[in-house]
Amino acid sequence: MARPLWYRITAWIGVLFVGPYYAVAIYAFIKKLNFIRDLNLVWASVMIVNLSCILSEQIFGVNKSDNLKIILCAYGSFLIFPILMLIRVLGFGKKRMWNHHKIQNKIKDFDKEKENEKVKGKEKGKEITENFVTSVKSPEKDKNKLQSPKNSTKIITPHKSTTKKYFLRSSTYTGQKVFEEVFFPTVANEHPDWEDKKIKQELIRRWDNLVDGAKKVCNE
């Protein structure tokens, strides 16, 4: 018996539309391309409509089939997979099937930030080492800075204790300045009768001895 016209139309839809769609869909799913989303909606809608017509004819139509189990097993997958596709595409309100491009961009931005932080850290480390090396190599300049009136010092004597505290006004700290600030109270406690100038001279002498010893060790 010849098939009815509507059935032949559904067959031609499968040949002209569904066949090329499968080829494009396989490539898009392998490459995770989001343009296939709209085609998935069209394909799933067409398949659900076609299978609804075919199964209705096979179950309730004039020429209904006597073997419904075989018909349902044969055509069931063509109805189940389009429904699953609609759930996959429209589920959870997603506009894109894959968001791998956004994730890759976030990873690239994160890597760039880490690289910038490393570069900044290296630059700061170089500056600190250069300042320390210059302070060790040229202690005479530090002496002149301490003796100059611009870099005068403040002496704060607390009321209760007899120890003296020494603070530098200069905002830039070198190794010698830190040494003097740390050991000024110790020298003042060792020699409470000394004046501030004599304590400074003693600190400079100790710093020179320390630098000379370090240079000898480096030369050896």
TrEMBL record:
Keyword tRNA-binding among UniProt keywords: no
GO cellular component: membrane
Annotated InterPro entries: EXPERA
Superkingdom field: Eukaryota
Biased composition (Polar residues): 146-155
Keywords: Membrane, Transmembrane, Transmembrane helix
Region (Disordered) residue spans: 136-155
Protein topology in the membrane: Multi-pass membrane protein
Residues annotated as transmembrane: 6-29, 41-62, 68-90
Pfam families: EBP
Chief subcellular location: membrane
Segments forming domain EXPERA: 4-88
Subcellular location(s) per record: Membrane
Name listed for the protein in its UniProt record: EXPERA domain-containing protein
Source organism: Streblomastix strix
